[in-house]
Amino acid sequence: MSLPKEIEVFLKKWRIVTSDHFKRFGLSKSVSDDVFRNALLRLRRKGKLFTLYLKGKSYHFHSSLKPRVEALEKFSQEERDERFLSWGIDHHLKVVDLGLKLEKAFPHFQITPNLFSDHVSFATGSTLSKNRKSAPDLTLINVLSEEPKLIFVEVECTLKNPRSYEKKWLAYERDLTVKAVLYWTFDRYITTRLESLMKQHLQGEEGREDFEFGLVHESPFVENSLHSNASIIRSGYSKPILLSKWLETASKKMLTACSPIPRFGHEKINNFTAMLSGSKQTPLPLPCLSTKDQEVAKATVRGVCFDPPSDNRKEVEEG
Length: 319
What we know:
Shape: globular
Oligomer: single chain
Radius of gyration: 20 Å
Structural class: alpha+beta
């Protein structure tokens, strides 16, 4: 693959990156700065990427984000820097950093970002009420497992309303292809508050007994947070475990013929998928997955869009 094509493919996946991202993670071999700059210039001339100077660095935007770039170009440099946070670019880059590190550390994981795009992928994400989608920042799939469970990853920079967490977590639990949600935080207060909300959520009647939360606080004093412990929170207990070990274990949990045991008992399982007001979801089977549900799970693992929207302009809630 040519250098410009490598850059184009990498940028199509991650949307906004720095030159450092390209050199550390996006290129198959080391190239000189001049060769790299010339490749970027060729793509820029073809309209395949756009480059802006923000917060003292050059950022490269995928061509699908042209409207955002044009909007930023109308502002002064100072105003652009202010929008670095308010427009979610800072959050996006934290997601990119984490996603690229996970890809490098776990090459057998397929890592898909669902973030910072004017076009929403409906292949992943769990349905909320009124057929809206809650898209995680990253989706992890262990390709070595024949029928793996999905792990959703949320990079949490700010705390949200407790009710919004509750709605999102119930939607995730309702999706039997999802085994766990990993929250990645940078603020100790956010970490503590999230842990409290997770434990409170798991004490409720609605939800799945086998569903897990993972929680990692990235400390500036830890050189590689991927080698640190994660707090694993499950109904009835919480414990620290090495992050790499937990990811391997959780992602290889197989989809068996029987559905996970709900926290509220089998007799209420038919109401499980309609627990959010306005939802028109088909009730889950009692208590085993139907052939259709198993095919849906396989389609999700393959990345197939099995639940296409009838209207491309549906609302989406992103972490």
